[in-house]
Amino acid sequence: MTSDRLSNKRPTAKRTYGLRAVLRWIARLLLPLAVIAATGFVFKALVASKPEVKKRPAREVAYAVQTRPVKPASIQPHITLFGTVSAARSVDLRALVGGEVIWVNPGLAEGQVLEEGEALVRIDAFDYEGAVREAKANLAEATAKMTETRATIASETSAIARLKEQAELAERDLERARKLVKSGSLTVQSLESRTLVLSQREQAVEARSNNLTVLKAKVEQLKANSERLQWRLDQAERNLVNTNLKAPFTGLVQKKNVDLGRNVSGNDSLVTMYDPGQMDVRFTLSDAQYGRLISGGKDLVGSPITVNWRLGDDIQTHRATIERITPEIDATNGGIEVFARLSKEAGLRSGTFVELSVPDKTYTGVIRVPQAAIYDDNRLYIADADSRMVSHKVEIKAYLGDDVLVDASPLDEGALVITTRIAEAGDGLKVILPGQSQKRAGQQQGKQKGNQQGEETGKQVGSKAGAQAKTGGAKQ
What we know:
This protein is α+β, with helices and mostly antiparallel strands. The protein folds into five domains: 1-38; 67-74 and 364-434, conserved putative lor/sdh protein from methanococcus maripaludis s2 fold (Beta Barrel), CATH 2.40.420.20; 78-87 and 275-362, Efflux pump adaptor protein, beta barrel domain (Elongation Factor Tu (Ef-tu), domain 3, Beta Barrel); 93-122 and 246-273, CATH 2.40.50.100; 126-241, Orthogonal Bundle (Helix Hairpins), CATH 1.10.287. It has helices spanning 2-49, 126-183, 188-241, 287-293, 434-475; strands at 63-64, 67-69, 73-75, 78-87, 90-94, 99-104, 113-114, 119-123, 244-246, 251-256, 263-264, 269-274, 279-286, 304-311, 314-325, 335-342, 353-359, 363-370, 379-383, 389-393, 396-400, 403-407, 416-418, 431-432. It has a six-stranded antiparallel barrel. A four-stranded antiparallel beta sheet has the order 2-23-19-20, with no helix packed on it. Helix 2 (126-183) runs antiparallel to helix 3. The longest helix is centred in the N-terminal third of the chain and has 58 residues, at 126-183.
């Protein structure tokens, strides 16, 4: 009997377990659907109950801008340029003679200032002293020979004078003999003998005269040789002096390339120095800038400029005067190089990078506005009485960095030029001027304050009405 009961309970338990599984599966399927349906119902109810918002009417867009009044004036701007300081007077000292360096100035070092005439380097002078002695000896020998020759010339001149006197006597004796021969007092043989004596004496005069001419030519040769020997002596003495290399002027040593014991030649550069009291600023003007500066026949040479040397936050200002201009415009950069001489007390070193302020020409009847205020290279906008943009065509006279000079003749004096750049700029566009923006902000704040006060008043009235309603209901 017990086995029958067990057999009856097992099918019932199986059926109960299967029914539960089916119910769980149905619950899992229906629960998400119920959640989705509830969410949709709530969303629909929220949408249906939302308050109706009134659409605001479209408002005109206005731009807050900055302005500048039109006040025509005569303006002389300054051109800002950049340049480099360089030495106007520099020298590369080379060894004028070759030899061993036996002495170097202890103060010869880069950055040191040496005085004019101060010895820098000394080269061994033994060979050059010997050359001077030899040249002096050769010149003394040539001088002695010339003295000897001149003494011989004097002797020959005196002898020729005596011979000429003897020839004159022989000639007079011959004339007398001729007269005696004609009278028969003298033989023809004696006449011929006197003629021979005259001929011999004339021959001696001619020989001595020719010898005198040779001696005079020899003197000229000796004179030429003496000049040549004198030049060699001067050269030897100069080479001896050049064994001492001296500073040609008071200058700053830029480079040193010599040491004790070095053997140098005439092609070796030993010292480079420049005069710190003669410094130039080298800069470039564009052809347009150069043309403006010389317009009206103005001479650019002699014009003063300002040199600014920036040392962090500190700026040192110096004066300079334009000294020279290169003769042609550089085709590579379209500019012309200019050199301005700094004042002696400037104290700037070579290679210093400086900023320059060069006075430009004077422009009359112009106004200065930012480049951002110019549209299409020739148009700017004026704010009219209704705070709307009105375009005007203008002529740009000069560009000054971020600003430009504009011819003010087409504009009314006192008109407000819009200096703020607006991408949507055009005639009739509404703008807000600086004073108007503050006024509008005040009005907006007043309006918001009034709305807040109205809301508070409404809340107070509603609360009071509710309280009265409750009181009346209680009385009833």
